[in-house]
Structures are given as C-alpha cells and as structure tokens.
C-alpha cells in the first residue's frame, strides 16, 4: 500500500513534466521553423501564383462580365477567352465547379477549380471517399476521392483540352485549385503526365499545377517525383497542409476543429518523424513547396511577406502550428492578397537593383539548373531515408531533365551543397551514391545513364534501386 502511495505522486510529476514539455515545444513552434533553411523564391517563378489565385476566385462569380466579388486588381480575365464554366449542377456533384480559360497573354491553357463549398454535400462525399492506403497510383498512394473527381473532369474535357494543346503547341497546360480544388488539380496533373497520349502526347514540361493551400493527397515518393510539375503554395500557419489527419476525419469534426487540431498536435509531438516517414500510405502536400511567411514569433501585426521555396523530403509541414490564424490563412482571399504583396516587394527589389536583361535571363537559366539539382538531392535523400517506394519507378523517371555532357565541376559542387541543405545522411549508403555519381560525372555520363546504373529492372520491367551495391 505504501509503495502505491509513493508511486502515484511520482507518476503525476512525470505526467506534468511531459505536458509542460509538450506545451513548451508547441507554444514556441512557429510556421517560420518549417522553412527557415529554405531558399528565397524569385519573382520569375512566383509570378503566376497571385494570377492563378484570381483565376480561382473568378469561379465563384455567377457572371464574370458583371462580377460581384472582384478583388481590387480585378480578376485579370478576358471574358471572351473564357471557354467554359461548369457549375455544381453541371458536374452533378462528381467534382467541384471549375472554368477553362485560354490565356493568350501568358500563352497558357488554364483549368481553375474552386475550393470546398461548405453548403454542398457532394464536396464532403469527395473527401470522405478514401481510406488509408486504399488507392495506389504510379508506385505510391493517392487520395481515392480526389483521383476519381479528377478522372471525371479529364473525361469530360479531354476532347477540348486535346484540341487546344494541339492547336497551340507553344502554350502550357496549367491546373490550378484551392483547398479541395487543389487536390483535384494535383490529381489531374498526375493523370495527364502519366497518360500524355490522352492529350495528343503532350510533353511533360508543358504541364504545370499550382495547388493553393494544398490538401495532403499523395505519398511522399510521388510528392518528390512530381516536384517539377506540381507547385504547392502555403500561407504562414495554414492548417490543411500540416495535418496528416485524413481529410474525411477533419470535415467530420468540422465543428470541433480546434479540438481536433490540438489532439493532432499532441500526437505529432510524441511520434518520431522517422517513424512517420516509414508509412508508405501516409499522404503529404505535393510537389515543390512555396511558403509565404508574414508573421514573426512573439511579434504583433503582419510584416512584409517573404516567400521561401524548396523540395523537402523530411520536414514537409509535419507539425501543426497552434495559432489563431491557422484557419484564416487557408482563405483564398488572404492568400491572393499576401501573394501579390510578396510579388510586388520582389519586383521592387529587383527594379532597385537594375539588373540588366542579359543577366536576368542568365539568372533564370541558372535557377532552372538549381531546381534540377535540388530535385536530384531530394531523390537521393528519399532513398537514403528508406522512404517506402522511393526506389520504385514504374516509368522512366521524369522529375529531372537530361544532364548535359559538358556540365562543369561547379554544378557538381552545387549538387553537394544542396544535398547537405536537405539533410543528406553521412551513412555509407549515401557516401556510395555520391562517389558513384562523381565518377560518372567526371567522365561526362548523362543523368539517364546514371539512373540506369543506380537502378535495375525487375521481371515486370519496373526500375528498382540496387541496394546490393550500397553494401559493397
């Protein structure tokens, strides 16, 4: 009896210390921690974001020629170029409302999809149509309901999109969406890249996706592999890209969302991130990440927004931020406003620097090479961490462009630098990969040849990582 009496206070002390530690870590954790080691975005790569936000906002208008909710800068849409608009009555609840816009000014064919409509049961049905690990796709896992909605949209508009893609060969094809629409847009991009023959064998480099306030809709290996196509934009403390709680559970508990977020916050504090990475069914925010940071810890008010970007493997918005702005930062109106502010600041800074046109063009080419190197580093990081299915490729790996045979040793150093930024392990396996990469680079081997040397084909013809080579 005396032993039990002595143990109870001890257990209470341990429990209180654990709660205090959790509260301390959670209260000090801010959104800036997620992207503190990321690089700054450039005006050239971030320029489309506020424009696509306005395109998405235009979907909410009943008559684009007589807008009611038009932002201060307008929608930037020529009504004569709006090819079609599908409402909920047209989609019969199979997908959110969307528009097809032919943007001649920017040489772009745009499919813009609106976000969740809280008054439509069909939108909830799309979110609820999923179970953990239910739908496999291209060697990974995706959200079943979002994939079905994207498949319906593609079936409906396949003929129109094919005609436009063939008629305007120099135009890009862009899928843009917010919240629920971001998940549908992401799945559309995956379907088109996976089956380019449906749209006249469109090239991968012509397909883009901008997921605004993205839903976690694909496994980690797919999120990294499609980072050259998909771009996700997150405003500060937005809750949706951060919570790994299934979307269906979030909206079942919509009226007690703060309680759900708090419980989720306690769980992700206690579960090691390495353990979470091992679950192949776990879904993540897709593609390359753009994080708009406008508030600082322990400071009041909003500061000039800064945009950070990276292709993270671990640390991909894995922690909920306890903030009163967690839900307001999810609103498309706020995202468009802050994205435009950030872009204006970047353009003003560039204008003050008076960069000559030639150097600006060179910088854009250099940026493309840096992104290419960052994709490679992310791939190797995923393999090093033993991310499930990261070494399984069902088609020719398409995230990276072909390496030029005359690439310099300076680019090799850039690769090593970027690899260290994403936290590449110094284990024997990663060292072996780097040594193999250096040997082949020194004799001018292309990236495709490097992939062939690191991967082998199984009986079904798929590429699998040669793990045996790392044990030598």
Automatic annotation (TrEMBL):
<feature type="region of interest" description="Disordered">
    <location>
        <begin position="393"/>
        <end position="442"/>
    </location>
</feature>
<dbReference type="InterPro" id="IPR002921">
    <property type="entry name" value="Fungal_lipase-type"/>
</dbReference>
<protein>
    <recommendedName>
        <fullName>Fungal lipase-like domain-containing protein</fullName>
    </recommendedName>
</protein>
<dbReference type="Pfam" id="PF03893">
    <property type="entry name" value="Lipase3_N"/>
</dbReference>
<dbReference type="InterPro" id="IPR029058">
    <property type="entry name" value="AB_hydrolase_fold"/>
</dbReference>
<dbReference type="Pfam" id="PF01764">
    <property type="entry name" value="Lipase_3"/>
</dbReference>
<feature type="compositionally biased region" description="Low complexity">
    <location>
        <begin position="425"/>
        <end position="435"/>
    </location>
</feature>
<feature type="compositionally biased region" description="Acidic residues">
    <location>
        <begin position="404"/>
        <end position="416"/>
    </location>
</feature>
<keyword id="KW-0378">Hydrolase</keyword>
<dbReference type="InterPro" id="IPR005592">
    <property type="entry name" value="Mono/diacylglycerol_lipase_N"/>
</dbReference>
<feature type="domain" description="Mono-/di-acylglycerol lipase N-terminal">
    <location>
        <begin position="10"/>
        <end position="75"/>
    </location>
</feature>
<feature type="domain" description="Fungal lipase-type">
    <location>
        <begin position="110"/>
        <end position="245"/>
    </location>
</feature>
């Amino acid at each position: 009896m005396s032993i039990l009496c002595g143990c109870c206070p001890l257990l209470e002390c341990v429990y209180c210390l654990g709660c205090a530690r959790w509260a301390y870590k959670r209260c000090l954790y801010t959104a800036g921690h997620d992207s503190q080691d990321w690089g700054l975005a450039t005006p050239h790569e971030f320029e489309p974001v506020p424009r696509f936000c306005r395109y998405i906002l235009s979907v909410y208008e009943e008559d684009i020629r007589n807008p009611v909710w038009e932002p201060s800068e307008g929608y930037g849409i020529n009504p004569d170029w709006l090819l079609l608009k599908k409402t909920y009555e047209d989609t019969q609840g199979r997908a959110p409302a969307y528009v097809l816009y032919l943007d001649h000014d920017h040489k772009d064919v745009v499919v813009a999809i609106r976000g969740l409509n809280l008054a439509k049961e069909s939108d909830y049905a799309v979110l609820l149509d999923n179970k953990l690990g239910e739908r496999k796709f291209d060697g990974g896992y995706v959200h079943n309901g979002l994939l079905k909605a994207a498949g319906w949209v593609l079936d409906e508009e396949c003929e129109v999109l094919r005609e436009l893609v063939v008629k305007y060969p120099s135009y890009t094809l862009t899928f843009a969406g917010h919240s629920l629409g971001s998940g549908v847009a992401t799945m559309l991009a995956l379907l088109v890249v996976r089956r380019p023959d449906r749209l006249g064998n469109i090239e991968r480099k012509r397909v883009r996706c901008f997921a605004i306030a993205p839903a976690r809709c694909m496994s980690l290996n797919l999120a990294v592999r499609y980072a050259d196509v998909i771009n996700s934009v997150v405003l500060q403390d937005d809750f949706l890209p951060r919570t790994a709680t299934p979307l269906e559970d979030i909206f079942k508990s919509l009226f007690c969302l703060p309680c759900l977020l708090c419980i989720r916050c306690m769980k992700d504090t206690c579960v090691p991130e390495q353990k979470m990475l091992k679950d192949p069914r776990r879904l993540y925010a897709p593609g390359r990440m753009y994080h708009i940071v406008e508030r600082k810890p322990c400071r009041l008010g909003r500061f000039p927004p800064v945009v950070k970007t990276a292709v993270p493997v671990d640390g991909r918005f894995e922690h909920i931020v306890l903030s009163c702005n967690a839900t307001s930062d999810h609103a498309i109106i706020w995202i468009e406003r802050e994205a435009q502010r950030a872009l204006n600041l970047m353009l003003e800074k560039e204008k003050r620097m008076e960069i000559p046109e030639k150097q600006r063009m060179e910088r854009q080419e250099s940026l493309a090479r840096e992104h290419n190197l960052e994709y490679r580093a992310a791939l190797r990081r995923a393999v090093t961490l033993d991310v499930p299915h990261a070494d399984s490729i069902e088609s020719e790996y398409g995230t990276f462009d072909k390496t030029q045979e005359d690439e310099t040793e300076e680019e090799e150093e850039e690769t090593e630098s970027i690899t260290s930024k994403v936290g590449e392990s110094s284990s024997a396996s990663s060292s072996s990969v780097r040594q193999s990469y250096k040997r082949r680079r020194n004799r001018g081997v292309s990236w495709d040849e490097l992939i062939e040397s690191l991967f082998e084909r199984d009986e079904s013809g798929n590429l699998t990582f040669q793990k045996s080579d790392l044990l030598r």
